[in-house]
Amino acid sequence: MSKTEILKEKIADADLVLIGVGEEFNENFSKIGDYPKLVRALEVVEKNPQLSWLVPYLEQMYLAQYENQELLEAYEKLGALVQDKNYFLITTCIDGRIYHAGMNNEKMVSPCGGYRKLQCSAKCCTQLWDADEVMQDIQAWIEEERDLTALQQPVCEHCGKPLVFNNIMAENYVEEGYLEQWEKYTKWLQLTLNKKLCIIELGVGMNMPGIMRWPFEKIAFYNQKASFFRINQALYQLPEDVGEKGISIEGNAKEFLRNL
Known about the structure:
Blueprint: H1 3-13, E1 16-21, H2 36-47, H3 55-65, H4 69-82, E2 86-91, E3 108-109, E4 113-120, E5 128-130, H5 132-142, E6 163-167, H6 176-190, E7 197-202, H7 213-222, E8 226-232, E9 246-250, H8 253-258
Helix pairs in contact: 2-3
């Protein structure tokens, strides 16, 4: 039986499925040249350093327009694989692609944040703001429906400091943006005790091993009914103490899902 077949069998037999999605799924901006209006906007920003605050907003616009079919296909395959299971998914990707793949958003947590909310750059408070209005103003400028001089960097209503996206790229990251979902995850983990748990770690490297890589190994070690699959192009090795519960698969995790 192949490792892929064993994985499918273990998922089918599991009471619960824990999924980790890591660096191999990070979106990049290599196709931004396909969007001339965004390129022109970036050129304007490069000539006007005071407009550098616009860069992450333009990146978000790119993410909203560019449909990465390969990535979406991988996520859709993952969703189909666990659609009938009690699962929870953690992702360190901040691009938000996985939230548009038809999976249950209430069963996911993004501890590194994303582009859906804004926070105070000085972290004077834990309040979060929707980015929609700012994005609409910038879009109007890109479409030449609004003059550049009308654009204003959004600021915190409490201290006047600039607002930035609520993700780990912020110098003072407001973690409260994901803590509610993280609490759901920790409560869900309590359900896995003495249950058949299938752990699937997809493309998780060593950028932030304390979020998934090391905790997943610990969970697999202590749960006698666990099965642990680590799929990674380079860092596919498993610690010896996981024993026969662990199966490592060498290969790009995104491509692995697409080929299921």
